[in-house]
Amino acid sequence: MNDAAFRILSLDGGGIKGVFSASFLNSIEEMSGESIADHFDLITGTSTGAILAVALGMGVPCREILRFYRERGPVIFPSTGVHRRVWHIARRIVTGKHDHEVLAAELRSVFGDKKLGESRCRLIIPSFNASSGMVHLFKTAHDERFRQDYRRSCVDVLMAASAAPTYFRPHRTEDGSVFVDGGVWASNPAMIGVLEALRQFRVRPGDIDLLSIGTTEEPFHLSGKRRPISGMIEWAQGILPLLMQAQADAAMKQAALLLDRVPLRVSPVVAPRRFSLDDTRRVEELCALGVAEARAQERAVRERFLSHPASAFLPALASA
To answer: For residues 77 and 279, is the Cβ–Cβ distance under 8 A?
Structure first.
């Protein structure tokens, strides 16, 4: 292990499946006795991963993050009976499937009026600016050029980063811009972190170590017993998992090509349709899966990423 390594934590999107990530991180903290946030030079997270990343940056213990997901997840993503599912399908045609105001209220219960600039570690949160039609990265003030995002409220940033199309309506931020979920282009933000290290901090590829945590994976494939998918209805049933998995796989392969050290990827493969982005009925299964995966990976994570604390984060605009 190179003690000079620039350590990056990357957290995938995946809705309520973030329970897996929260459970994994909490179990690692419990077994190692170390605080995750104290050991990474940069944390990046998409959608549900953004919530985890900002919570870590704000010093929220992993056990509290996990409790939030287990207790408030069913409030944000309420399960529905047959008659309410019909209503949700109709609602999804004209607006988000779930109430964005509920999500905002739950986020405020955790973050209050805290600003992104209060993070104790460097953060990068991907989103998509629907007003300009361009990708967007919310960043802490880890460079003097970053003069806007650190002033934003955590809730504003997270609403912009987690407004998943068809699940929540687009979010209008405090400055009037409209944003949608960063998962539309970076469901796995690993390369965002790697490129920031290479370009912004001028870290050599050999000095970067990456821990990438997914929210379980369902590899897409066409069964030989079925005809190829062709129609709109057939594609609609599987296009989102396909796009998320393809992007995540591409990000990891690109990172592996750039870095000297093979990234550590934690995202167990599960049976098709076992979990979904908003099905809270399997929260405890996701939690148990996180515990099991932590037992298998704790030594690797501890030796590679938790051997010593990261250097203190000193915002470039601390006096602004």
So the answer is: yes
Q: Where are the beta strands (DSSP E) in 130-281?
A: 134-139, 171-172, 178-181, 208-213, 264-266
User: Secondary structure of 7-60 in the HEC alphabet?
Assistant: EEEEECCCHHHHHHHHHHHHHHHHHHCCCHHHHCCEEEECCHHHHHHHHHHCCC
Q: Measure the CA–CA gap between 301 and 320, rounded to whole angstroms.
A: 36
Tell me the pTM. 0.91
Q: 166 in the Ramachandran plot: left (φ > 0), alpha (ψ -120 to 50) or beta?
A: left
Closest CA to 76 of 108, 49, 101, 46: 101
What tens digit of pLDDT does each residue of 32-62 get? 999 999 999 999 999 999 999 999 999 999 9
pLDDT in tens, 106-161: 999 999 999 999 999 999 999 999 999 999 999 999 988 998 999 999 999 999 99
- Please give the full DSSP string across 217-253, using - where no structure is assigned: B------TTSPPP-SHHHHHHHHHHHHHHHHHHHHHH
212's torsion region: left (phi>0), alpha (psi -120 to 50) or beta?
beta
Which is nearest to 166 in space by CA: 284, 271, 276?
Answer: 276
Q: Which residues are catalytic?
A: 47, 181
- Whether 171 contacts 193, CB under 8 Å: no
Contact in structure between 283 and 69 (CB atoms under 8 Å): yes
CB 189 within 8 A of CB 215: no
